[in-house]
Amino acid sequence: MKRCLCWAHVRRRFKDAITVKSKGSVETLAEIGFRYCSALFEWEKKFKHMDSKERKEARLKHERPVLDAFWQYIDDNIGKTLPKSKLGMAMAYALDNKAKLETYLEDGNCSISNNVAENSIRPFSIGRKNWIFAGSPKGADASACVYSLVETAKANGLDPFMYLQCLLMLAPGSNYLKNEDAMKSMMPWSSLMTAKCSIK
């Protein structure tokens, strides 16, 4: 397993380091770093409808040069910033996680950011004070499983209620933990679940 870190977090750190400046003044180091990160996201928009193989090739062709320039920019300027400043910490964070930030180049299925995942869990994060008391550790585990199932169903265009209903009907007696085919058929992206539970 390889970790794939989020470029949205890097970009946000550089954005937070940008300070107000007078009109017409020279572009700051924070703005340059932010511009490099934004360029990666602009390329990603253009690759959105490609299949994974095409996306990987396009990333290597167009984003690899942007990344090389970004890392050179950090190497050239990290010594010019105060380590505890917002810009210094943004540069250090990127440099410390360089390999993990470039993992997405290895597979066209990997995303450049985890914004989709964060947006999926936001409703639960916002409401967590309402259900802070799960009753027991097992209750908390059960809740986390159900939340994951609901959001995964939504992400795959399924009606969450219908998906949970199907799971509760199919899982008992299926021996899905040892039967790989049974497990695959219950995944929210399976043809069976798509046919039974898709939002019309």
Helices and strands in order:
Layout: H1 7-17, H2 29-46, H3 52-77, H4 86-96, H5 98-101, H6 115-126, H7 137-155, H8 160-170, H9 180-185, H10 191-197
Helix pairs in contact: 1-2, 1-4, 2-3, 7-8
Can you offer a commentary on this structure?
The structure is a single chain. By secondary structure, the protein is mainly alpha-helical. 62% of the residues lie in helices and 0% in strands. The chain is built from 10 helices and no strands. It has helices at residues 7-17, 29-46, 52-77, 86-96, 98-101, 115-126, 137-155, 160-170, 180-185, 191-197. The longest helix is centred in the first third of the chain and has 26 residues, at 52-77. It is elongated, with a radius of gyration of 22 Å.
Question: Summed up, what is this model?
Answer:
This is Transposase. The protein is built from 10 helices and no strands. It is mainly α and 200 residues long.
Distance between the termini: 36 Å
Question: SSE order in H/E notation?
Answer: HHHHHHHHHH
Shape: elongated
- Major β-sheet, in short? none
- Total strand count, please? 0
Q: Compute the number of structural domains.
A: 2
The stretches of 5 or more residues where confidence is low (pLDDT under 50) are none
The chain-level structural class is mainly alpha
Helix content: 55-70%
Taking Cα atoms only, what radius of gyration do you get, to the nearest Å? 22 Å
Oligomerization category of the chains in this entry:
single chain
Number of helices: 10
User: How large is the share of residues in beta strands?
Assistant: under 5%
Rounded mean pLDDT is 88
Organism: Kineothrix sedimenti
Protein name: Transposase
Domain Transposase IS66 C-terminal: 148-189
Pfam family, one: DDE_Tnp_IS66
